[in-house]
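Hi there. Long-time user, first ticket. I'm pasting a complex I've been working with (about 496 residues overall). I'd like to know whether the download I got is complete or cut off, because the file seemed smaller than I expected. Thanks.
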Amino acid sequence: MTTYRFKTPVSEEDVRKLRVGDIIYVSGTLVTARDEAHKRALEYYEEGKKLPVDFEGIALYHCGPIVKKVNDEWIAVAAGPTTSTRMDLFEAEFIEKFRVRIIIGKGGMGERTTEACKKYGAVYCAFIGGAAVLAANAIKRIKGVEWLDLGMPEALWIFEVENFGPLTVTIDSHGNNLHREVMSRVEANRDTIYKKLKLKG
Amino acid sequence: MSLVQKIEDTVVNLLRLAVTRLPKDVKDALKTAYEKEVDETAKTQLKAILDNIMLAEKTERPMCQDTGVIIFYVKVGNEFKELGKLPEILRTATIRATKEIPLRPNAVHPISQKNSGDNTGRYIPYINWEIIQGDFLEITAFPKGGGSENMSRLGMLKPGEGIDGMKKFVIDTVLHAGGQPCPPVILGVGIGGGADIAMKLAKKALLRPITERHEDPEIAKLEQELLEAVNESGIGPMGLGGRTTALGVNIEYAHRHPASYPVGVVVQCWAARRASARIYSDGAVEYLTHEVGEK
Ligand code: SF4
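Hi, the file is complete. Here it is re-exported in full:
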């Protein structure tokens, strides 16, 4: 288990060093995207339209933040992660098309995303669910927002962050998926627990 | 200041305390868990949760972006003045707290899907009443997060399955939830009564500090046994593995119908928010869950 500090843009080489269980802190550019933004970005790609943000090497954050405008400037009030499984529909393609290197969320992602991380060199990191203040504290500035027509939580928020973390690498670029591993261990523990409580399975 | 105003201010304060500062029993349990964990990943998660809590306290900001659906538990003395005005006061205080703290508006109409924008709506804030003797009022603010609530379950078990069936249902609920309810969790378990009663007792059980065991030694033993069993699961903080899946198991029970054995499990997340105060008819206020300096 190693701790890394990265500054965006992150290269494929950087990401390939990472193993499940490593901790990273990210500085630089973090862009939020939920279902709607993923969907639109892929539609833009299909239609050959230019995206308002270059995703290559930046960190993508599954988050619908609470932001407010103070004197013409956006401030992040709370920015905890949202459940990532909803983005499983789009993520493999997103990694392939836009070469995003670090994906941050909570709860983990599935097989297709794990495969794409392996194939194209990306990692998925878990951030503490609900840790809104910790996240907001690492956001130094909101550099911009795109696609605000999707609504505040669904828009692409471009954050400038400093030591955003701790992020636990739970899907690495070598085919490992910590969520999958833990869940199969948990399944195996079921019998032990039943036995201990003298229950019939 | 009028008594009505005093109650309203106190309730706003309770909501603020609840979302920005965890009660001592939960905070201590998280600290102990951090010290005891051997799994490095688990330690990292717990440390980050503790850092987040400290930062929330210091900056007076909600510890989690989901500030929950607003629930109150009210014990009101039969001689307490202003009894009839309480529902209105709690509503007004909720609207004020939503703006002032701020809280995330979490009251959505289930058919039109429209968010009321101020955390109030039909039956919301939800108020649980209890009438007691005396001239005081005890209010608990209990904002409940959605992610953990979604993992809650009701089981209408067969009486023949008995206590074993209950234990299995609790374990299966936790294993099914995995990392989704933001563990370490606290489990509220309600047994007996009926479908609604079991769920109500399960949630009410979460009001008891996790450091206190049930007064009935049999139930206390069950709480301890289930806590240890759940922590053998290996789910760990945020579902990334480790020994700390739950910080506590609190059980409450009611007598049951001979033909049914209802078991309710309400899952609470690490952001186990609650704040209580006692208000006397003469306007004196005593905070019960948090240390509060005189204002
Ligand atoms: S489950 Fe609890 S800690 Fe997690 S996001 Fe919801 S309210 Fe916050």
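A couple of notes from our side: The pocket of iron/sulfur cluster is lined by residues A 129-130; B 64, 66, 145-148, 181-182, 269-271 (CB under 6 Å). DSSP finds six helices and nine strands in chain A.
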